[in-house]
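Hi V.,

Quick status before I head out on leave. The structure for the redesign project is tokenized and pasted below; the design run finished overnight.
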């Protein structure tokens, strides 16, 4: 008899035995407990705990059974397993002997035993499942549980394809009990994650979560929330991950599920680690390991130790980390997470200069990952193998491994439909693309470097704009083939930017040798394209200097200082003789360069720069160039103007006048006033060639697709509404409002905001503002812009905007007085912005008044 039994009083043994068996005769109770019992004593114990005897069988209330089993599993998991193994053998013998009435009890015991074996004993689980499959099972529930755990056991023994195939068969059954369906959805989702099918995983988790909530199963609801948190973490959506994990912890706390609370601790530790709170992460991991040691779960202990080793690695304690990784490897009983340990050992060796040992560790991890089909970790391994080869001056091998990493990333991304998942996945692996750009540049292969830069930026945006067509990533030759003879494209690409959402990497000590193996070299690469030539140069500026602590990542006062503008001009536009020869400039910013006021840089000190049009990527620009021009809409212009109510502090006195002026110049229609306009706009906008909005704009950093235009009293037209519900044929949309050109740039250089919305809705060009603009200067600039547009409809909007900017900045106060009188707004000369200016001075010469206006266009 096991020592664990002697520690349990006989009355508790009786209760546990009955709870495990469901109902029990005295003789089978003695068989399963492996000791003699007194019938009267058993009867007394039953009565004391609300139990009873009927037809010679002892039973307990269901709530008592659940409490007893949960307590035994938590406090004595070894005996919990032993007791279930004995009960299963006993009931299996009875079923084989023809006692069909025992199949339900056998199935319940099997489900609990298999659930416990899932954690650390996959081979034992597989054996049990095969034994269960050899029994004469008759009920749908018994057969389904056997199939379910067969699929789980195959996944746990690294047979992912076979596992998913069985889950697919199981979930196609229409007679599947809800509990098994919910369990199967969760488990299949776990398998999807391991093979990189994240969108399908999230769909299964979400469907399973709804089922558990419908059944009122708090424990399993918590498990699914835990898995959703893990998936969000894998996509580096740390805030979302923490929300899911805290929700899971709340569920587990409600029912006292200590074992699952420990799992949450481990995952929260990973979130805290990546957010830079190493001490909080270490405490979480240590609590997890302590709990798993009590449960005698060596595989889980190994996973926790691996996480602790990573903390030591990030702290620069490389020898200690290496020792912990070896200890973790000794604990592992499954191969899935041995791969992570080999990867970390490789990093530790590489950081101490042991490149051959590092390469061997990475190869060990790669062999295991390929053998069991674990695709989610392959990009990590290939990336670090490429790094080792580069340091060994084996450029061919380095390039091969980096391209293998991208191949896995692209294959994972290809079947995805959800835009958010596409963005998260590509953003997660930006360093691979950045490394490839540098790899090809160092070999003098500029065209290849350009193509990899394009593959790293705004891919989801390009696919949105491209509609149902499969958008191919632009090559330099593709772009040059359609660039006009006087056209110039400047494509920037930033690397090694320590984004605000990855504080762990920002906090790595400068003397930690791990830095150079985890971080790509910070830099700004400028690709310069004409229709005849492609060159690349490295700008002498660290892009991290442009990342601020502001939630928007932008400090206007700092950016518009003369010294800063001059430094940016010298760094980003230096040695570009093509600029003076260019008639049309197309500019593609990247990363923090989206916040740079290039219009100011191109026109300092005089307004002598070229007309410029921006694009999110060369691929988006090319798609717009190649898109056939549709027939012009029937109507010319629709102008919308609403500046708020006069009694409001935020009132824009010239918004309505601006809209009326635009409609008048273009012979269009105008909508002003505070009444609701959204529903009418949704159906009307497709009929107009030009759309103009003069109103308040609000940028929402946390939810950028909720950024909006205030089109009426308490009415907000959001980017999300435009993207999903509007269909445009407009040549030009002008958003003459504050911050309409501000986007939140997600990893993968995906701009999220009003620009994305209007382009996706079909606009050929969008004129926006990068920061809050002054109402009067905006009115004057727009008046000049539309006067010229009415006269020269064939001139590009970029050229018209450039002319209007140069005109505005050179206006004297006397000129302003004359313009306002001509526009029917003579009283505007008393605006505060014009106070204390002399007649000959230029009140709008500063870039603050004109450099915010930016045109995004592919033409």
């Amino acid at each position: 008899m096991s020592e664990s039994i002697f520690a349990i009083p006989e009355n508790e043994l009786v209760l546990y035995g009955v709870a495990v068996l469901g109902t029990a005769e005295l003789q089978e109770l003695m068989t399963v407990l492996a000791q003699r019992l007194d019938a009267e004593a058993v009867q007394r114990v039953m009565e004391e705990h609300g139990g009873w005897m009927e037809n010679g069988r002892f039973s307990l209330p269901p709530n008592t059974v659940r409490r007893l089993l949960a307590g035994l599993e938590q406090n004595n998991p070894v005996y919990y397993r032993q007791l279930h193994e004995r009960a299963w053998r006993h009931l299996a013998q009875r079923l084989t002997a023809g006692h069909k009435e025992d199949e339900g009890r056998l199935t319940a015991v099997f489900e609990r035993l298999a659930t416990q074996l899932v954690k650390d004993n996959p081979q034992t689980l597989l054996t049990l499942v095969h034994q269960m499959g050899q029994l004469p099972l008759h009920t749908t529930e018994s057969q389904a549980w056997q199939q379910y755990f067969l699929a789980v056991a195959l996944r746990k023994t690294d047979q992912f394809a076979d596992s998913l195939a069985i889950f697919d068969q199981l979930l196609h059954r229409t007679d599947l009990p809800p509990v098994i369906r919910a369990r199967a959805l969760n488990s299949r989702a776990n398998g999807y994650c391991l093979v990189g099918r994240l969108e399908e995983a999230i769909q299964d988790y979400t469907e399973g979560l709804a089922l558990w909530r419908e059944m009122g199963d708090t424990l399993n609801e918590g498990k699914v929330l835990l898995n959703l948190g893990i998936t969000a973490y894998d996509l580096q959506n740390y805030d979302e991950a923490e929300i899911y994990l805290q929700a899971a912890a709340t569920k587990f706390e409600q029912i006292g599920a200590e074992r699952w609370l420990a799992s949450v601790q481990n995952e929260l530790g990973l979130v805290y680690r990546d957010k830079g709170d190493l001490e909080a992460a270490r405490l979480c991991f240590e609590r997890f390991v302590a709990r798993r040691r009590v449960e005698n779960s060596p595989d889980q202990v190994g996973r926790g130790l691996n996480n602790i080793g990573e903390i030591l690695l990030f702290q620069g304690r490389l020898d200690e980390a290496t020792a912990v990784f070896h200890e973790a490897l000794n604990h592992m009983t499954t191969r899935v997470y041995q791969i992570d340990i080999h990867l970390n050992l490789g990093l530790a060796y590489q950081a101490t200069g042991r490149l051959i040992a590092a390469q061997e560790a990475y190869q060990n991890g790669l062999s295991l990952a390929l053998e069991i089909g674990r695709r989610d970790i392959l990009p990590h391994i290939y990336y670090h193998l490429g790094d080792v080869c580069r340091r060994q001056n084996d450029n061919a091998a380095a390039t091969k491994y980096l391209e293998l990493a991208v191949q896995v990333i692209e294959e994972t991304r290809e079947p995805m439909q959800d835009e958010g998942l596409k963005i998260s996945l590509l953003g997660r692996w930006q360093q691979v693309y950045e490394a490839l750009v540098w790899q090809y540049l160092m070999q003098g292969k500029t065209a290849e470097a350009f193509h990899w830069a394009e593959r790293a930026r705004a891919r989801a945006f390009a696919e949105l704009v491209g509609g149902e067509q499969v958008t191919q990533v632009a090559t330099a030759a593709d772009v040059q083939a359609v660039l006009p003879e006087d056209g110039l494209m400047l494509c920037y690409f930033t690397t090694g930017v320590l984004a605000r959402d990855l504080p762990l990497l920002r906090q790595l000590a400068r003397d930690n040798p791990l830095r150079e193996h985890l971080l790509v070299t910070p830099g700004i690469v400028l690709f310069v394209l004409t229709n005849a030539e492609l060159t690349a140069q490295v700008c002498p500026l660290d892009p991290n200097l442009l990342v601020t602590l502001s939630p928007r990542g932008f400090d206007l006062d700092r950016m518009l200082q003369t010294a800063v503008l001059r430094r940016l001009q010298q760094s980003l536009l230096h040695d570009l003789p093509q600029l003076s020869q260019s008639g049309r400039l197309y500019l593609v910013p990247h990363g923090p360069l989206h916040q740079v006021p290039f219009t100011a840089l191109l026109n300092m000190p005089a307004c002598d720069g070229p007309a410029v049009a921006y694009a999110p990527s060369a691929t988006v620009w090319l798609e717009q160039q190649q898109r056939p021009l549709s027939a012009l809409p029937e109507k010319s212009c629709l102008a919308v103007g609403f500046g708020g109510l006069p009694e409001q502090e935020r009132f824009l006195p010239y918004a309505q006048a601006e809209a009326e002026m635009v409609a008048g110049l273009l012979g269009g229609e105008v909508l002003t006033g505070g009444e609701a306009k959204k529903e009418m706009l949704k159906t009307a906008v497709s009929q107009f060639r030009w759309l103009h909005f003069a109103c308040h704009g609000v940028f929402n950093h946390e939810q950028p697709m909720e950024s909006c235009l205030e089109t009426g009293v308490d009415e907000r037209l959001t980017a999300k509404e435009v993207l999903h519900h509007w269909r445009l044929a407009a040549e030009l949309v002008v958003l003459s409002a504050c911050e309409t050109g501000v986007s939140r740039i997600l990893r993968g250089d995906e701009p999220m905001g009003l620009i994305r919305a209007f382009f996706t809705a079909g606009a050929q060009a969008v004129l926006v503002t990068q920061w809050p603009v002054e109402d009067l200067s905006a009115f004057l600039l727009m008046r000049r812009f539309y006067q010229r547009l009415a006269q020269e409809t064939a001139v590009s909007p970029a050229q018209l905007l450039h002319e209007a900017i140069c005109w505005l900045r050179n206006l004297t106060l006397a000129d302003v007085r004359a313009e306002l009188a001509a526009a029917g707004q003579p009283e505007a000369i008393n605006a505060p912005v014009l106070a204390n200016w002399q007649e000959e001075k230029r009140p709008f010469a500063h870039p603050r008044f004109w450099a915010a206006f930016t045109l995004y266009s592919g033409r």
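Above is the designed sequence. The radius of gyration is 33 Å.

G. will cover questions while I'm gone.

Best,
W.
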